[in-house]
Each structure stands twice: as C-alpha cells, then as structure tokens.
Backbone:
C-alpha cells in the first residue's frame, strides 16, 4: 500500500462515510448527541445544544473553576463558595437564585417550578440549595467550614473521575463500535451498543481508556509530544471497541505501530474536512448536531479501517489481536447457518406449529392484541409469539442483518434460550379488558384518595363520579394495552407511546370537563413543563412508567388470574361492574361529584376557551 494511498482515496472514504450516516442516521445522531452533551468528544459542538446549566455542571462535577466564578450568580458560584469555605455566602446566593426562579415562573407558566416533585428537584439543583443543605448537614457533624470545603473539593474530584473513567471515556469506544457495525450491517440493536458490557469487559476497557488519557496528559507536558501522541493513540478506542480484552500497554503499543507512517496522513485527512468546521462556526454548532459530528466520526472510522487492513497485511507485532473479523465483513451464509442451527430448527418448528388466523380476527389480534370469540388456541398462539420474539434477534444474526454475536471471539453463551417466557405478548379477551378497566380505575381512585390524604390529611372522594373509580386511569391502562400493543417488543417505544397517549387522554379529558362544567378536577399550574395546567412533565413520566408496569407486569399477571375463573363467572362480574359504572357515569354527567377536595380549581378563567 503506497504512502499516500489513503489520502488519494479520500473521496471514496468520504462517500462511504456519507452512506454509513444515511443508512443509520437516527441512531448515530442520537448517540452523537449523547456524546456531545456529556462532553466525551466534539465539545465545541455544545453551543448548538444551548445552555443546560445545572445539568451539565452536575454531570461534570463542576470541577472546572472558571475565572471569577465566585462572583457570578450561578450554581457554579454556589459550589465555588462552598469549596472555598464561604458557606454563608453560598447559602445567600442559592436563596437569591431560588427567588429569581420563582419570579421567572410567574412570567412563564409552562416552565413553572412551584409545584410537584420534579419542580422540587429542578429548583434544588438549579439554585444550588441541594448543595448548601448538604454542606450545612456536614458542618453540623464536622463543626468546621474548612473540613466541609475539603470534602466538597474531594467529592467534586471523585465524582468527575468516576463519570470520566467509567462513563465518558469508555463511551468513546462503544461509540466507535457503533460506527464500525454501521458500515457493514443493515440493522443495529442495543445489544451491539452494549457489547463491551455483555462480554463483561467494561472495567478492562475503562482501564485501557484511562491509560490512554494519562499517557496523553503526560506527553502534553512536552508540548510537541502531546500533539504527536494524540495521533499515535488515535486507534486505541477502535482497538478497545474491537477487542476489549486488550491490556492497556498492549492497546497503546499496537496503536503506535498501526499509526507509524500515518500520523501526518491523518492530520491532512482531518484538514480536508475544514468545510465542516467552518460550517459549524457559521451555524453556531447546529450543523454539527444535525449531521457534522456523525459524518466526521464516520470519516475517521473509514480511515481506521484502512490502517487496520494494512496492519494485518504487513503482520505488524500484535496484529493477531485484531481478531473480530465480522465487525468488518459479513460472515459466510453457510457458517452463519451452522452457527445458528438451533435458531433454524426453532424457526422450522414455529412454522409447523403456527396458528392460522384470517380476516378480521387476524387484524384485531395483530393490531390491538384483542382475542375475539372462543379462547381455543389462544394459549398456543401466545406461546408461539413468545418463541418468535425469542428467536427474532438471532434470526437477524443468522441472515447477516446484524452482527453475529455468537461468532465474537469473546462471546461465551452460544445456546438458544428456549425456556424464556414473554407473558407481555399475550392477547386479551373483551371480558378480561372490562375487568382490567375496572381494576385500573379502582386502583387509580385509591391512589388519588391516599395521595390526597397524605398531602391534606383528609379523606375525599376524588374524581367526577360517585363510585370508587376514576375512568381516566381505566381508559388509559386499557387503551395503552390496545393502541400500543405493536410496541410491546420494544420497551423504549412502548414507554414514549404510552406517555404520549396518556398525555393526549388527560389533556382532552381536562379540557372537556372544563368546557362542560367550568371546573377543574386537577390542575398542574406551577408544575415544571405543564401545558395549560392540564398535563405536565412529571405526570407524563409517571404515566409512562406506570403504563410499562401495566403492560409488562400487572396486566399479564391479572389476566392470568382472570383466565383461571370460569367463563360465566367472568362474564357475570364484568356485566355487573359495567352496569354500575354506566349508571354512575350517566348520573355524573348531570350531577358530577363537586365535594370539597375533589375540585382542584374554581371556575376557569375564560369561559369557553378553545383547545389550542
């Protein structure tokens, strides 16, 4: 391979980089944003993220002592005062910050900080009061401001070190593995991103990346040496991504040998990307956030792939440790079928055992998870869906759609778990859904009554109805089971879909009650990130978590118990509860429950405001 061959072929490398980013844009962008936010790399792109204030300082341990930091009103200045032993001054600044936040809340109701658990957390962190209270508690024990200051300095350093060593620094390797995989495979899963942890080498990878950082820091003391070694150690994160079993000196030495004769090439290659740096400056970092950062990382990855190939061809010392072949090319189909023979066998058995579904029944089951009519074959269908889910990941590996983990040199378990249970994939009969609706409605009412009793010290019938049920909880739980059933195989999608659905239900339920009765049965005014007082971020997060508990735990467990009852008993109980609930609903449309404590706010200002 000629001396300038990589630079001469840079157009090909850049074209391949564009293709990589386009094929996996969203996951690469998301992981790049995480990296930028936590300051792992490309920190100059943070400008496009705006000012996240206390979040960034908390993540980074606020270990950077800015100029004149103690004189600027910020969380950083509060921490600076505590670390300098000026606890009283820090307390006063925290109180002033808290007062400013309260004043801003009056001007911006959507970002209110006055009510709710989330608001308390945001206020305490964004004003620095949480640190002041901690310092005051320590002073009451130690009886010394200087001892408290020393503890805070040490804690800040330790926190920064832990975050840097175990998360930020090692994330660089996991991030690069993602780009290596994106070059070769059409699909990327979270298993691929977490490969280093799944092969139980995270701590070893942390040590290697820490050693690289330490060597770089020491070489920076020589000025010129720091620049040279930056390029010498360029390959270390990629080596860890490929083989996290490498020792620290082994990885660093191998990187140096791979970069021999390529350091200036890499420097010139980086300069060839000057247009993206200029665009980042002009757009204040926005271009980096939407495309620039993942594209440049893809370019560096292509460069690394070329020098790795050359290292293997030249058989440089240590080249045999570059042993994850299928990180760079797809395996032969015959080898994949032999490796995943258990999966092939299971797929064949599933196909032979399949339950025939047609027409309306098929659509009802696949789209909404409702099992209509007779319960015959229901259990068999659910068992088959669980088996399909279990083999889906391995099927993609077998078809070369994603990285074949069983062919990884560090992967130990190469057996299909046939006994896995996935009860959350079950379907629900109409009668079961009615009982689940009533169960969730009663549970929601109980939760509201108990919560109000804890907060106000009085028992109150919450909600618009007279009976012990809140239909918003019942309808929310059942609608999540029905409308979000296609997301159950992906917990992240299920969480956000559930949160969105519950938010829509709660918002329009609140609007309807306000328009119909000119009263509010709940109000989130003053809560952080609320929308017209009808929904708020804290409530949506709780709904998202609660819905996931329903989908993955409570509903399957309750439906299993319901299935043990005789069909006439289930139908009878369902009809009786449904009749009582219907009577209560009709009555409450005319005369709703307006007892003291049930109403959160008096008549709404603006008698017939339209839904924004």
Residues:
């Amino acid at each position: 391979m000629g001396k300038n061959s990589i630079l001469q072929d840079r157009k090909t490398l850049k074209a391949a980089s564009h293709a990589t980013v386009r094929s996996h844009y969203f996951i690469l962008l998301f992981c790049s944003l995480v990296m930028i936010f936590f300051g792992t790399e490309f920190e100059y792109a943070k400008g496009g993220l705006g000012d996240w204030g206390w979040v960034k300082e908390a993540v980074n341990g606020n270990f950077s002592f800015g100029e004149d930091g103690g004189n600027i009103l910020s969380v950083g200045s509060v921490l600076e005062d505590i670390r300098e032993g000026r606890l009283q001054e820090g307390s006063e600044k925290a109180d002033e910050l808290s007062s400013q936040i309260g004043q801003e809340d009056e001007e911006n109701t959507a970002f209110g900080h006055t009510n709710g658990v989330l608001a308390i957390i945001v206020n305490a962190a964004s004003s620095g009061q949480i640190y002041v209270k901690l310092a005051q508690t320590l002073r009451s024990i130690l009886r010394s401001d200087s001892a408290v200051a020393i503890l805070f300095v040490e804690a800040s350093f330790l926190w920064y070190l832990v975050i840097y060593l175990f998360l930020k620094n090692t994330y660089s390797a996991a991030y690069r593995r993602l780009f290596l995989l994106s070059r070769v495979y059409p699909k990327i899963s979270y298993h691929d991103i977490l490969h280093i942890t799944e092969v139980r080498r995270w701590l070893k990878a942390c040590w290697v990346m820490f050693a690289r950082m330490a060597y770089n820091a020491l070489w920076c003391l020589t000025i010129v040496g720091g620049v040279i070694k930056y390029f010498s150690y360029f390959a270390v994160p990629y080596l860890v991504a490929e083989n996290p079993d490498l020792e620290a000196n082994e990885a660093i030495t191998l990187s140096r040998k791979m970069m021999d004769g390529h350091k200036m090439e890499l420097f010139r290659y980086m300069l060839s990307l000057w247009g993206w740096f200029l665009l980042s400056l002009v757009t204040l970092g926005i271009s980096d956030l939407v495309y620039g950062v993942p594209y440049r990382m893809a370019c560096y990855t292509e460069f690394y792939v070329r020098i790795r190939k050359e290292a293997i061809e030249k058989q440089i010392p240590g080249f045999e440790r570059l042993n994850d072949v299928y990180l760079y090319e797809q395996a032969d189909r015959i080898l994949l079928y032999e490796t995943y023979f258990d999966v092939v066998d299971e797929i064949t058995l599933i196909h032979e055992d399949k339950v025939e579904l047609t027409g309306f029944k098929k659509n009802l089951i696949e789209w909404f998870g409702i099992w209509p009519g007779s319960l015959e074959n229901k259990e068999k269908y659910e068992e088959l869906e669980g088996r399909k889910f279990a083999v889906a990941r391995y099927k993609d590996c077998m078809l070369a759609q994603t990285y074949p983990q069983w062919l990884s040199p560090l992967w130990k378990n190469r057996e299909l778990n046939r006994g896995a249970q996935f009860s959350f994939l079950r379907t629900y009969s109409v009668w079961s859904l009615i009982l689940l609706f009533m169960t969730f409605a009663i549970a929601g009412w109980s939760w509201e009554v108990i919560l109000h009793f804890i907060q106000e010290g009085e028992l109150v019938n919450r909600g618009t109805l007279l009976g012990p049920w809140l239909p918003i909880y019942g309808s929310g739980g059942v609608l999540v089971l029905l409308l979000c059933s296609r997301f159950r195989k992906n917990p992240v999608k299920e969480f956000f879909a559930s949160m969105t659905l519950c938010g829509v239900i709660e918002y329009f339920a609140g609007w309807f009650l306000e328009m119909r009765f000119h009263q509010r049965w709940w109000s989130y005014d003053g809560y952080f990130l609320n929308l017209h007082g009808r929904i708020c971020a804290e409530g949506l997060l709780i709904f998202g978590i609660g819905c996931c508990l329903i989908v993955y735990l409570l509903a399957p467990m309750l439906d299993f118990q319901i299935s043990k009852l005789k069909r006439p008993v289930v139908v009878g109980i369902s009809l009786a509860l449904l009749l009582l609930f219907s009577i209560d609903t009709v009555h409450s449309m005319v005369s709703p429950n307006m007892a003291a404590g049930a109403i959160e706010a008096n008549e709404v200002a603006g008698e017939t405001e339209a839904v924004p």
